[in-house]
Amino acid sequence: MINYDLKKIRAIIFDVDGVLSASTIGMDDEGMPMRTINIKDGYAIQLAQKEGLRCAIMTGGNAEAIGKRYNYLGVTDIYQKCAVKIQTYEQFIALYGLCDDEIIYMGDDIPDLQVMQRVGCPCCPADACPEVKAVSVYVSDAKGGYGCARDVIEQVLRAQGKWLSNAHAFGW
Length: 172
Hints:
Keywords: Hydrolase, Magnesium, Metal-binding. InterPro entries: CMP-NeuNAc_synthase, HAD-like_sf, HAD_sf, KdsC_fam. It comes from Hallella faecis. GO terms for molecular function: hydrolase activity. This is HAD hydrolase family protein. The chain contains 6 helices and 8 strands. The protein is 33% helix and 15% strand. It is α/β, with parallel strands linked by helices and 172 residues long. β7, α5 (130-135) and β8 (138-139) form a beta-alpha-beta unit. The protein starts with 10 loop residues before the first strand and ends in a 13-residue tail after the last helix. The strands form 2 sheets. Strands 5-4-1-6-7-8 form a 6-stranded parallel beta sheet, sandwiched between helices. Strands 2-3 form a two-stranded antiparallel ribbon.
């Protein structure tokens, strides 16, 4: 269980590679990554959006498929090619008037560290690097790409009394 007051969470930010997709990915003939996605993560992301949580994507990657997938799930804050994620994070919180302690960030590797050290509730998948695990309030039992996002979202929605609480839960 996440040891944090999840009732105050207003936004959850996810890295992509190693969090929403597995750490090992195939490549096509042109050298482009072929990411996998977890359907249960997707269900939880779209439900969180419907229940009033702001979900955002913050990745160093850049692929049309990322934008399409998360737009389909209702995510409007999709930041790709984030060379220095803390700069994007500062713009995001300023845009929505959010405080650090209202945010979960889920990352898995060194480029995520600066943001994770700022947010109130840093979380990571089971297979995150040691430095990320060391700063995390919560380490999911699930690996990246295998339900870690669902794990965190479900805990937040349950704590806020929004998990399976209305008709939103039973559709896409």
